[in-house]
Amino acid sequence: MALQKVLNVSGTAVPVMGDEIDTDRIIPARFMKCVTFDGLGEFAFADAIKEAENAGRVFPFKSEKFAGASVLVSGANFGCGSSREHAPQALYRAGIRAIIAGSFAEIFFGNSTTLGIPCVSLPREKLNELADLINQQPEMVVEIDLEEKCVKAGDWVTPFTIAETAYQALVEGKFDPIAELSESNIDGVAASLPYVSGY
Amino acid sequence: MKRSLFQKVWDAHVVGKLSDGRTQLFIGTHLIHEVTSPQAFGMLRDLGMKVKFPNRTFATVDHIIPTDEPNEPFSDPLADAMIKELRKNCAESGVTFFDSNTGKQGVVHIVGPEQGITQPGMTIACGDSHTATHGAFGAIAFGIGTSQVRDILATQTMALNPLKVRRINVHGKLRPGVYAKDVILHIIRILGVKGGLGYAYEYGGEIFDQFSLEERMTVCNMSIEGGARCGYVNPDEKTFEYLKGRPYAPEDEAWDRAVEHWKSFRSDEGCEYDDVVNINAEDIAPTVTWGINPEQAIFIDENLPDPASMPVESRETAVEAYEHMKLKAGDPVKGTKVDVAFLGSCTNGRLSDFEEAAKYLKGRKVADHVKAIVVPGSQVVAGIAEAKGIAKIFEEAGFEWRGAGCSMCLGMNPDQLVGDQLCASSSNRNFKGRQGSPTGRTVLMSPVMVAAAAVKGEVADAREVFDIA
User: Fold this and answer.
1) B109 three-class SS
2) For residue range B348-376, what is the model confidence (pLDDT) as tens digits?
3) Which residues of B touch A51 (CB under 8 A)?
4) Residue B243: domain span
5) Are the beta carbons of B415 and B375 closer than 8 angstroms?
6) In A, residues 160-199, which contact B (CB 8 Å cutoff)?
7) Where are the beta strands (DSSP E) in A6-112?
8) Residue-wise pLDDT tens digits, B128-178
9) Fewer CB within a 10 Å sphere, N or C end of chain B?
10) In this structure, are B205 and B117 located in the same domain?
11) The model's pTM
12) Are B316 and B407 in the same domain?
C-alpha cells in the first residue's frame, strides 16, 4: 500500500499538560460501544471536558482559544493504560495529526504510528517552554519537522527524540505494515511450530 | 548461548525483518472480543482480505455483556449490535466463538487458559491490554490495537520491536492475609507505572514457584499497569498439571511430546537479564490504591502519603489524585467509607479468588449501605462456584451473584458507579472514570480485602476483620 510519507506536520497546538494522561481520559470506555471508529472524535477527552466545566474551568481541548489545533502537547507516559486504538482514533478524528509529549506508553505509541501520527518526545523543561509559548500565542504554528528531527515554534527550535523504527516507518511512508506483512514466508514459520502444525 | 524464555519464544516466531527495522513476528494464538475486533473485520473487508488462520483465532464476548440480563436483545441497543456483529464476523470467517449460549463464554483472559488454549511457548495477542495474563503459562502475550488485530487476522503476524527482559524475584514467604494481588500492587508501587516501559517482566523466586496458576495469572495480568508490554512465569509441573485434560490441550502421545517441547522454553539457568529486581515477600502487607493510577498504592496500615515527600514528577498527579478521591494526605486509608464492593474481572474473577473470599464471608453480612456484587470470570467458573455452594455463601452474605463478564471493571455495560461512589474493587485500574462514572472513585485491592471492605462498609484490614494470623 502506497502511503504518504510523513515528513512534516504543522498546525496550531493545544497543551493538555500533566503526566500519565491515560486512555480512559482520552476516550472513556463507555463511548467505545461502537462497531466503527467513525464519530469517536466528538468524545475525545469527554470526561475531562465535563469535569473542567463543572469546576468552572475550560479544558484546553475544548477551549475556543485552541480550536482547530492539530498538534497535541502533553506530559510523561501519555496514553498509558488500555490498548484501545479508539484513543488515537478519537484524537485523529478530532483533528490531531501529531503528539509531542514527555514520553509515551508503548501500545499507544504503536497504535498512533500505524495511523501515521508522529509521537515525538521532548525533555520536561522544553515541554513546559512550548506549553507557555502556545498559551501566550495560541495562533502560533508548531511544526514537527521529521527530516530535521526538531520541533519549531517561531524562533523556538528544539530537537525531539522518537524510536528509530517508528521514525523510519513514518518518513518512508511505511507506517501501516499490512502490505509488507502479507508478502513474507508466514506458512514456513507456521509449519515449524508444533502447536500450529500439530504435536 | 543461554537465553531467557522471552528470547526463545521470540526466536521461534520470527518471520523476518521489515524494511523499517521492526520484526515480523508470528502470533500463534489470536484472541478476539466484541470491542476491538469489529473495526478490524471492517478493514479486512475493505482490503478484500480473509482471516488467514481461523483455527488459531478464538472469540468471546465480555466487555459489553450485561451480567444481569441473560437474554437478547439486550436493553442497550449498542451492546446488542456489538454481540451480533461479532457473531456474524465469526460465522463468516470460521472462527470459534465462545458465545453466551455455549456454557464457555467469559472474560477472554479467563476463557483462554480455562479451555487449555493458552499454552507454554506460544505467542498470543489480543486487542486488550490485559493479555499479559496468559504469560502465567510461559507464553509471550501482547495487548494490541485494532490495526494490529487486522494485521493478525489477515496474516497471523504483527510488526514489533524486541523487548528487554527484567527478572523480578520475590523471595521468602508471604505473610498471612497477603495475596498475589498484593504482590503485583507492591511491584507496581516500587517500580512505578512507567518502570516497565520497553520491558517484558519475568516473574520468579520462591513465591512464584509456590503460586498456583491462578495466582500467577493475577500477577501477570497487571504487568501492563507497571508499563511492561508482557509478563510471564516459566512453565513447570504445575503448569502442565493445570493444562492436562482441558478441551484444547493435546492428548495421549501428543501430550507427552508437548510437555517435552514446553519444557524447552524455560529460561536457561544463568541466562543474562537486562535488569534484575529482588523483593522480600515478608516486606509485603495487604496493599490498596489511594489515587488514580495503580502506583499510587500503600499498605493498609499506612497513612496517605504527603505529595511534598514525593519525587517532583509525582507531585502534580498526587494532588490531582487527592482532589478526585476526596482523600487527605496524612489520614489513614483504613476507615475510608465504601459504597460499592466489586469482586471479579480478569485479574481476580477466578474460582480460587471466590473460594478464598467466601471462606471468610461465610456467616457474615455485607454492611447495610454497601452495594456488593460478585461477577464470575466465565460461565465455567460460575457453574463450579454454584455447584460448590460458593455462590450461595455470597448471596447469604448480601452479595449479588451475577453472570459472567467484565462488569464493573470498566464502564461499558450496565454495572457502573453512580456519582462519586467509592468502590472497593478487585479489578486492575483506578483511572478516573474507569468504572463508568466520571467522578466515581476506585480503590484496588485483593478479593479478601474486598470482602472485608464489604462487611465493614469501609476500607479495612482483612487480617483484623477476619482474624487472619
Assistant:
1) helix
2) 999 999 999 999 999 999 999 999 999 99
3) 432, 438-439
4) 5-263
5) yes
6) 163-166, 168-169, 172, 174-178, 180-182, 184-186, 189-190, 192-196, 198-199
7) 8-11, 13-15, 71-73, 98-101
8) 999 999 999 999 999 999 999 999 999 999 999 999 999 999 999 999 999
9) N
10) yes
11) 0.96
12) yes
